[in-house]
Amino acid sequence: MNNTLPRPVAQATGIVRRLLLICAVTVASLAMNAGAAELSGAGSTFVEPLLGRWINTWSQQSGTRVSYKASGSGAGIEQVKAGTVDFAMTDAPLSEDELTKNNLTQFPVVAGGIAIVVNFPGERRRLQLTGTLLAEIYLGRITQWNDPKLQELNPAMPLPAQPIIVLYRGDSSGTSFNITSYLTKVSPEWAQGVGTSKAPQWPTGRGIQGNETSGDTVIGTPYSIAYVEYGYALDHNMQIVGLRDAAGKTVSPTQSTISSAVDAADWANAPHFSVLLVGVQGNNAWPIAAVTWAVVSRTPRRMADGQGTLDFFRWVIRNGAALADAQGYTPMPERVVKLIEAAWAREMGR
Description:
350 residues; alpha/beta; D-Maltodextrin-Binding Protein, domain 2; 2 domains; 10-stranded mixed sheet; 3-stranded mixed sheet; elongated; transport; signal; phosphate transport
């Protein structure tokens, strides 16, 4: 008896087998992808350039997909409160009451500087300001670049007879929180009239959405002034302003002066690491340094997500320093990293 199938039947059977094998592989692949870890975050535009590098590097190493929307610190906090993202990034710390009420915890991941930048066409000398004069500009008291107060501080730099175009962040921003905190410290008039806020009522100027857009607007707007993340200003060769202190010494933002501010802060005694670096007294410290915190739920939606989120941030604080340095940010020192990991063990058992 001949058990050999006719050639057409055999060919059809082989095709069916191959199709079944392809289907099986496809189903298995889909199942693996469906089961792969995926994390989501939102918030700070200040840290976005660095966070994107961290996410790309860690995702390649871990196989975990991470999405991040740079919507501003305020919007990110609202999303993590609502449970629609696994983490938020913010440049303004949450209060103890806010953390407790929403079952959240926060920890610092990196520091950076807020640079004051200007656009003087054809001029590469560095403008100098004091905190008081910066407040007067943002209060609308000084409106011309060649104002005598500014010219006196910059005698070797002929200032243009041009109106000052004031730019600020128009969204809810942790960067605005830090810059207004600084202005509150140096100017009683600012403290009484405007104060510290992520979304202050600016007395003058034009609002711009996001750190990068603010920087781009300055680059394209002659005789403007704004505040942007230091690494962004460095990458785009922007004209960065130096700040003169009460002793007559001018300090500029650098990774060294930002690191000095981080080192001078009292991290060990700050509940939930709620430390503002603006105005920190340290040797040669940039007075408008800022911290970016990660905010996560103490009881995540899915346990795997919570573990994955902390796995990501453990990698960030342990292995992300080189990328931070390369982008102009300042990593958390080892003593702070140990405090963060102890807080995780205490609050989340991880």
